[in-house]
């Protein structure tokens, strides 16, 4: 029987949009040891099918400062962390399991040290969040949401929009993509990474992924093995997987032990393009 380890409580199934008079405290510098990464963990049903190296270590390497200008840090309710991507001057794409219970979020753009004020960094608070109406906290289907910013941000060398894979995109099986985020760098770590890190991962076929995660894996998912390198971990949820300058996935779920060598599972962007357009105009 599939064993599920769920790291959040989903209490809202539709878009969050609070009235303008609602007040809240905007987070500035946060205690990283108390910032709770927001992730879904699902245990593989048959890890014996894995054909991945035992040396698979999460964390990757620190990226060059401001070399990933589309990357966004998403602080939910001032106490939990996810990743995201800027898909227009006024819209951030992330995972629904990150925002389903959000009263407000603060997005941090142009960041490298996301928890320190930087000249390149822009911080915007929003209460306008659209979660996929059919997101499920049981099957984790439709794990996608958009955050609408109150006004457009100025794009520059440090803050840029990432193009999205079209509906006609292929499976990307065998392709190598870049995953980035501020998630944990080891299973033993209890805090987010202070700096943006990245790792190149290989896309595997959904059939192989399904032998590990069962019926959870559908055509709306994309999986990576991270052969020889690393995959995503706690705190990277909602973050972008990019191939040849185009976002093809956003991190949805992983096994609870990040260093065990299990695949990382993403929401497949091409299968959600219609929903993204309807809810963001992109």
Automatic annotation (TrEMBL):
| CDD domains according to UniProt | Tryp_SPc (cd00190)
Task: Describe the location of the Peptidase S1 domain by residue ranges.
Answer: 57-281
Q: Which UniProt keywords apply?
A: Disulfide bond, Hydrolase, Protease, Serine protease, Signal
Disulfide bond keyword on record:
yes
Q: Which PANTHER family match?
A: AT26814P-RELATED, POLYSERASE-RELATED
In the UniProt record, the signal sequence range is 1-17
This entry's Gene Ontology molecular function terms read: serine-type endopeptidase activity
Q: Origin organism of this chain?
A: Anoplophora glabripennis
What InterPro entries does the record tag this protein with?
Peptidase_S1 (IPR050430), Peptidase_S1_PA (IPR009003), Peptidase_S1_PA_chymotrypsin (IPR043504), Peptidase_S1A (IPR001314), Trypsin_dom (IPR001254), TRYPSIN_HIS (IPR018114), TRYPSIN_SER (IPR033116)
Pfam families, alphabetized: Trypsin (PF00089)
Q: Which GO terms describe its biological process?
A: proteolysis
By sequence similarity, the record places it as follows: Belongs to the peptidase S1 family.
Q: Point out the coiled-coil segments of this chain.
A: none
Name used for this protein in its record = Chymotrypsin
- Reply yes or no: does the keyword Signal apply: yes
